[in-house]
Give the backbone structure.
Amino acid sequence: MKIVMLGAPGAGKGTQADRIAEKYAIPHISTGDIFRANLKAGTELGMKAKEYMDKGLLVPDSLTVDLLMDRIAKDDCRDGYVLDGFPRTIPQAEALKSALEKKGEKLDYAIDVDVPDENIIGRMSGRRACVKCGATYHVVYAAPAKEGICDKCGSELILRDDDKPETVKKRLAVYHEQTQPLIDFYKAEGILKTVDGTQNLEKVFADIIDILGA
Ligand code: AP5
Protein backbone atom coordinates (compact mmCIF):
# COMPACT_ATOMS: atom_id res chain seq x y z
CA MET A 1 0.00 0.00 0.00
CA LYS A 2 1.44 3.39 -1.03
CA ILE A 3 0.09 6.31 0.91
CA VAL A 4 0.77 10.05 0.95
CA MET A 5 -0.19 12.10 4.02
CA LEU A 6 -1.34 15.65 3.33
CA GLY A 7 -2.15 18.43 5.77
CA ALA A 8 -0.87 21.64 7.28
CA PRO A 9 2.18 21.69 9.55
CA GLY A 10 1.04 20.25 12.87
CA ALA A 11 -2.12 18.66 11.45
CA GLY A 12 -1.00 15.29 12.79
CA LYS A 13 0.48 13.71 9.66
CA GLY A 14 3.51 12.32 11.47
CA THR A 15 1.46 11.03 14.42
CA GLN A 16 -0.93 9.16 12.14
CA ALA A 17 1.79 8.01 9.70
CA ASP A 18 3.55 6.31 12.61
CA ARG A 19 0.41 4.38 13.49
CA ILE A 20 -0.29 3.46 9.88
CA ALA A 21 3.30 2.23 9.46
CA GLU A 22 2.99 0.03 12.52
CA LYS A 23 -0.44 -1.40 11.67
CA TYR A 24 0.29 -2.16 8.01
CA ALA A 25 4.00 -3.01 8.49
CA ILE A 26 5.27 -0.47 5.96
CA PRO A 27 7.98 2.18 6.47
CA HIS A 28 7.05 5.69 7.59
CA ILE A 29 9.14 8.05 5.47
CA SER A 30 9.27 11.69 6.59
CA THR A 31 11.41 14.09 4.56
CA GLY A 32 11.43 16.44 7.58
CA ASP A 33 12.88 13.63 9.73
CA ILE A 34 15.47 12.84 7.04
CA PHE A 35 16.58 16.50 6.97
CA ARG A 36 16.71 16.68 10.78
CA ALA A 37 18.76 13.45 10.94
CA ASN A 38 21.18 14.91 8.39
CA LEU A 39 21.45 18.11 10.38
CA LYS A 40 22.20 16.18 13.53
CA ALA A 41 24.86 14.19 11.69
CA GLY A 42 26.34 17.46 10.39
CA THR A 43 26.06 16.53 6.69
CA GLU A 44 26.16 19.15 3.94
CA LEU A 45 22.54 18.32 3.07
CA GLY A 46 21.51 18.89 6.69
CA MET A 47 23.27 22.29 6.80
CA LYS A 48 21.66 23.39 3.54
CA ALA A 49 18.19 22.20 4.63
CA LYS A 50 18.50 24.05 7.96
CA GLU A 51 18.84 27.40 6.15
CA TYR A 52 15.32 26.93 4.79
CA MET A 53 13.69 25.05 7.67
CA ASP A 54 14.62 27.66 10.27
CA LYS A 55 12.90 30.33 8.16
CA GLY A 56 9.77 28.21 7.70
CA LEU A 57 10.50 27.84 3.97
CA LEU A 58 10.50 24.69 1.87
CA VAL A 59 13.80 23.05 1.06
CA PRO A 60 14.25 23.36 -2.74
CA ASP A 61 12.87 20.53 -4.90
CA SER A 62 16.39 20.02 -6.28
CA LEU A 63 17.52 18.79 -2.85
CA THR A 64 14.35 16.94 -1.95
CA VAL A 65 13.17 14.91 -4.94
CA ASP A 66 16.25 12.71 -5.50
CA LEU A 67 16.55 12.10 -1.78
CA LEU A 68 13.00 10.75 -1.62
CA MET A 69 13.35 8.72 -4.83
CA ASP A 70 16.47 7.02 -3.44
CA ARG A 71 14.65 6.23 -0.21
CA ILE A 72 11.60 4.63 -1.86
CA ALA A 73 13.89 2.54 -4.08
CA LYS A 74 15.16 0.68 -1.01
CA ASP A 75 14.17 -2.94 -0.32
CA ASP A 76 11.96 -2.19 2.68
CA CYS A 77 9.62 -0.19 0.39
CA ARG A 78 8.75 -3.21 -1.77
CA ASP A 79 5.32 -3.62 -0.14
CA GLY A 80 4.62 0.09 0.09
CA TYR A 81 5.19 3.04 2.40
CA VAL A 82 3.54 6.00 4.02
CA LEU A 83 5.04 9.34 2.94
CA ASP A 84 4.82 12.19 5.46
CA GLY A 85 5.86 15.63 4.26
CA PHE A 86 6.41 14.61 0.65
CA PRO A 87 5.22 15.71 -1.84
CA ARG A 88 4.89 19.32 -0.78
CA THR A 89 4.79 21.03 -4.17
CA ILE A 90 3.16 20.19 -7.49
CA PRO A 91 6.59 19.52 -9.12
CA GLN A 92 7.36 17.03 -6.31
CA ALA A 93 3.99 15.31 -6.86
CA GLU A 94 4.61 15.12 -10.59
CA ALA A 95 8.13 13.74 -10.08
CA LEU A 96 6.75 11.04 -7.78
CA LYS A 97 3.95 10.18 -10.20
CA SER A 98 6.28 9.82 -13.15
CA ALA A 99 8.86 7.78 -11.17
CA LEU A 100 6.10 5.39 -10.11
CA GLU A 101 4.63 5.20 -13.61
CA LYS A 102 8.02 4.16 -14.97
CA LYS A 103 7.85 1.13 -12.67
CA GLY A 104 4.18 0.44 -13.52
CA GLU A 105 3.16 1.53 -10.01
CA LYS A 106 0.87 4.18 -8.54
CA LEU A 107 -0.14 5.68 -5.22
CA ASP A 108 -3.17 4.12 -3.54
CA TYR A 109 -4.30 6.92 -1.22
CA ALA A 110 -3.62 10.57 -0.45
CA ILE A 111 -5.01 11.22 3.03
CA ASP A 112 -5.61 14.84 3.92
CA VAL A 113 -5.62 15.41 7.69
CA ASP A 114 -7.75 18.53 7.80
CA VAL A 115 -7.13 20.99 10.67
CA PRO A 116 -7.89 24.74 10.51
CA ASP A 117 -5.04 27.20 11.08
CA GLU A 118 -6.45 28.41 14.40
CA ASN A 119 -5.87 24.97 15.99
CA ILE A 120 -2.31 24.67 14.73
CA ILE A 121 -0.29 27.17 16.76
CA GLY A 122 -1.33 25.62 20.12
CA ARG A 123 -0.49 22.16 18.89
CA MET A 124 2.97 23.19 17.74
CA SER A 125 3.94 25.04 20.89
CA GLY A 126 2.98 21.92 22.89
CA ARG A 127 4.79 19.48 20.63
CA ARG A 128 7.95 17.82 21.90
CA ALA A 129 10.24 15.75 19.67
CA CYS A 130 12.84 13.19 20.66
CA VAL A 131 16.41 14.33 19.91
CA LYS A 132 17.40 10.74 19.09
CA CYS A 133 14.57 8.79 17.41
CA GLY A 134 12.33 11.69 16.30
CA ALA A 135 9.21 10.36 18.10
CA THR A 136 6.65 13.10 18.63
CA TYR A 137 4.59 13.94 21.72
CA HIS A 138 2.33 16.71 22.94
CA VAL A 139 2.51 18.06 26.46
CA VAL A 140 -1.31 17.84 26.78
CA TYR A 141 -2.73 15.57 24.04
CA ALA A 142 -0.03 12.90 23.79
CA ALA A 143 2.17 13.26 26.85
CA PRO A 144 5.13 10.91 27.44
CA ALA A 145 5.01 8.70 30.55
CA LYS A 146 7.86 10.74 32.09
CA GLU A 147 7.99 14.47 31.38
CA GLY A 148 10.76 15.43 28.93
CA ILE A 149 11.80 11.81 28.24
CA CYS A 150 11.03 9.72 25.14
CA ASP A 151 8.92 6.61 25.87
CA LYS A 152 10.51 4.79 22.94
CA CYS A 153 14.24 5.32 23.50
CA GLY A 154 14.64 7.22 26.79
CA SER A 155 16.31 10.28 25.20
CA GLU A 156 15.56 13.95 25.82
CA LEU A 157 12.48 15.65 24.32
CA ILE A 158 12.83 19.18 22.90
CA LEU A 159 10.77 21.93 21.23
CA ARG A 160 11.78 21.96 17.56
CA ASP A 161 13.45 25.21 16.42
CA ASP A 162 10.82 25.64 13.70
CA ASP A 163 7.90 25.22 16.16
CA LYS A 164 8.25 28.73 17.54
CA PRO A 165 5.05 30.73 16.81
CA GLU A 166 6.62 33.18 14.28
CA THR A 167 8.08 30.32 12.25
CA VAL A 168 4.85 28.32 12.45
CA LYS A 169 2.95 31.29 10.97
CA LYS A 170 5.39 31.40 8.06
CA ARG A 171 5.12 27.61 7.57
CA LEU A 172 1.33 27.90 7.44
CA ALA A 173 1.53 30.64 4.79
CA VAL A 174 3.95 28.51 2.75
CA TYR A 175 1.62 25.52 3.18
CA HIS A 176 -1.38 27.41 1.79
CA GLU A 177 0.59 28.76 -1.12
CA GLN A 178 2.66 25.75 -2.19
CA THR A 179 1.26 22.56 -0.65
CA GLN A 180 -2.51 22.98 -0.44
CA PRO A 181 -2.83 22.81 -4.27
CA LEU A 182 -1.92 19.11 -3.89
CA ILE A 183 -5.42 18.52 -2.55
CA ASP A 184 -6.87 19.33 -5.98
CA PHE A 185 -4.03 17.42 -7.66
CA TYR A 186 -4.90 14.19 -5.81
CA LYS A 187 -8.65 14.82 -6.12
CA ALA A 188 -8.13 14.84 -9.87
CA GLU A 189 -6.13 11.59 -9.55
CA GLY A 190 -9.16 10.07 -7.77
CA ILE A 191 -7.25 9.01 -4.62
CA LEU A 192 -7.94 11.87 -2.21
CA LYS A 193 -9.50 11.00 1.17
CA THR A 194 -10.12 13.61 3.86
CA VAL A 195 -10.24 13.02 7.60
CA ASP A 196 -11.22 15.50 10.29
CA GLY A 197 -7.92 16.08 12.11
CA THR A 198 -9.51 18.14 14.90
CA GLN A 199 -10.80 14.94 16.53
CA ASN A 200 -8.74 13.11 19.14
CA LEU A 201 -5.80 10.99 17.96
CA GLU A 202 -7.64 7.66 18.28
CA LYS A 203 -10.71 8.85 16.37
CA VAL A 204 -8.56 10.25 13.55
CA PHE A 205 -6.76 6.89 13.32
CA ALA A 206 -10.07 4.97 13.36
CA ASP A 207 -11.28 7.09 10.42
CA ILE A 208 -8.05 6.33 8.55
CA ILE A 209 -8.46 2.59 9.14
CA ASP A 210 -12.00 2.84 7.75
CA ILE A 211 -10.45 4.22 4.57
CA LEU A 212 -7.51 1.81 4.31
CA GLY A 213 -9.31 -1.31 5.50
CA ALA A 214 -8.63 -3.23 8.70
P1 AP5 B 1 8.09 18.41 8.55
O1 AP5 B 1 8.88 17.77 9.61
O2 AP5 B 1 7.46 17.55 7.50
O3 AP5 B 1 7.03 19.36 9.23
P2 AP5 B 1 5.50 19.69 8.84
O4 AP5 B 1 4.88 19.19 7.60
O5 AP5 B 1 5.47 21.14 8.99
O6 AP5 B 1 4.73 18.83 9.77
P3 AP5 B 1 5.00 18.64 11.22
O7 AP5 B 1 5.98 17.54 11.45
O8 AP5 B 1 5.33 19.96 11.86
O9 AP5 B 1 3.54 18.26 11.72
P4 AP5 B 1 2.67 16.93 11.56
O10 AP5 B 1 1.51 17.20 10.64
O11 AP5 B 1 3.50 15.74 11.28
O12 AP5 B 1 2.07 16.90 13.01
P5 AP5 B 1 2.41 15.96 14.26
O13 AP5 B 1 1.90 14.59 14.02
O14 AP5 B 1 3.82 16.13 14.70
O15 AP5 B 1 8.97 19.48 7.77
C1 AP5 B 1 9.76 20.43 8.44
C2 AP5 B 1 10.47 21.30 7.42
O16 AP5 B 1 11.30 20.47 6.57
C3 AP5 B 1 9.56 22.04 6.44
O17 AP5 B 1 9.09 23.26 6.98
C4 AP5 B 1 10.51 22.22 5.25
O18 AP5 B 1 11.41 23.27 5.47
C5 AP5 B 1 11.31 20.93 5.25
N1 AP5 B 1 10.72 19.90 4.37
C6 AP5 B 1 10.27 18.67 4.76
N2 AP5 B 1 9.80 17.99 3.71
C7 AP5 B 1 9.96 18.79 2.62
C8 AP5 B 1 9.65 18.64 1.25
N3 AP5 B 1 9.06 17.54 0.77
N4 AP5 B 1 9.96 19.67 0.42
C9 AP5 B 1 10.53 20.80 0.88
N5 AP5 B 1 10.84 21.00 2.18
C10 AP5 B 1 10.55 20.01 3.04
O19 AP5 B 1 1.42 16.67 15.33
C11 AP5 B 1 1.70 17.99 15.79
C12 AP5 B 1 1.43 18.04 17.32
O20 AP5 B 1 0.03 17.88 17.55
C13 AP5 B 1 2.12 16.91 18.09
O21 AP5 B 1 2.53 17.40 19.33
C14 AP5 B 1 1.01 15.85 18.27
O22 AP5 B 1 1.20 15.07 19.43
C15 AP5 B 1 -0.24 16.71 18.35
N6 AP5 B 1 -1.39 16.08 17.72
C16 AP5 B 1 -1.42 15.33 16.58
N7 AP5 B 1 -2.67 14.92 16.29
C17 AP5 B 1 -3.47 15.44 17.29
C18 AP5 B 1 -4.86 15.40 17.55
N8 AP5 B 1 -5.71 14.71 16.76
N9 AP5 B 1 -5.32 16.06 18.64
C19 AP5 B 1 -4.46 16.74 19.46
N10 AP5 B 1 -3.13 16.83 19.27
C20 AP5 B 1 -2.63 16.19 18.19
Observations:
- The CA atoms of residues 182 and 188 lie 10 Å apart.
- The beta strands are 2-6, 28-30, 81-84, 109-114, 127-130, 136-138, 157-158, 192-196.
- The mean pLDDT is 95.
- The longest helix spans residues 165-179.
